[in-house]
Specification:
CATH class of the largest domain: Alpha Beta
Mean pLDDT: 88
Distance between the termini: 18 Å
Number of strands: 12
Helix content: 40-55%
Low-confidence stretches: none
CATH architecture of the largest domain: 3-Layer(aba) Sandwich
Shape: elongated
Structural class: alpha/beta
CATH superfamily of the largest domain: Response regulator
Oligomer: single chain
Length: 224
């Protein structure tokens, strides 16, 4: 997934953020003050910076100014207990991509992280037609064929397969699949059920899949 730098000096909030991000399959880098955050951006080249405003040495706004001056393009989500409109505007004017007010729910934060990451990188494209082994999938017509015989798949199954193909070789967390495919709140068991159905329809040996692979404690990935 992505490498995310967390700049936060509250150890409880920091531990919670690390747990949330690991659950989503991300790797984390930690900074407990603003100066370290700037240095970590320079040295570790994270895909995203989650930045608390009230940091020692350099506060979050000063970190934004420093990074902007240095020409850094790292996407930034600011975390702050300050919910004032002026603070939000200042953060965004200084180059932040989003602003989240504490307290926040894990689901809200993960949705915002996903949105910022998606905006910050070119979206992987999946061709309208895709083939592997004896499978041919036509995403435009919502049709799938196995050895020339049509396989009936649901709309959700087509969408999950397309999402996995767009991230080919990379783990996609269950929560990411939930957020992308379903607008209403459902459980991760729903994802597991749909993955099993996909394997039943597309894998020659569903119990020992070659293409739709489980990534332990994270989610799934597609491999050729």
């Amino acid at each position: 997934m992505s490498k995310i730098l967390i700049a936060e000096d509250d150890k409880n909030i920091l531990a919670g953020l690390v747990d949330i991000l690991k659950l989503e399959g991300h790797t984390t880098v930690i900074a407990r003050d603003g100066e370290t955050a700037v240095k970590q951006v320079q040295e570790r080249k994270p895909d995203l910076l989650i930045l608390d405003v009230m940091l020692p040495k350099l506060n979050g706004f000063e970190v934004c100014k420093r990074l902007k001056k240095e020409g850094s393009a790292v996407p930034i989500i600011i975390l702050s207990a300050q919910g004032e409109e002026a603070d939000k505007v200042l953060g965004l004017e200084l180059g932040a991509d989003d602003y989240v007010t504490k307290p926040f729910s894990p689901r809200e934060l993960t949705v915002r992280i996903k949105a910022v990451l998606r905006r910050s990188r070119p979206e992987a494209k999946v061709e309208d037609s895709y083939e592997f082994d004896n499978i041919k999938v036509d995403f435009k017509r919502f049709q799938a064929f196995r050895a020339g015989q049509e396989v009936k798949m649901t709309s959700a199954e087509f969408k999950i397969l397309k999402l996995l193909l767009a991230n080919k070789g990379e783990p996609v967390s269950r929560h990411t699949i939930l957020g992308d495919i379903w607008s209403s709140e459902v459980t991760t068991r729903t994802v597991d059920t749909h993955i099993w159905n996909l394997r039943e329809k597309l894998e020659s040996d569903p119990g020992n899949p070659k293409h739709i692979i489980t990534v332990h404690r994270i989610g799934y990935k597609f491999v050729e």
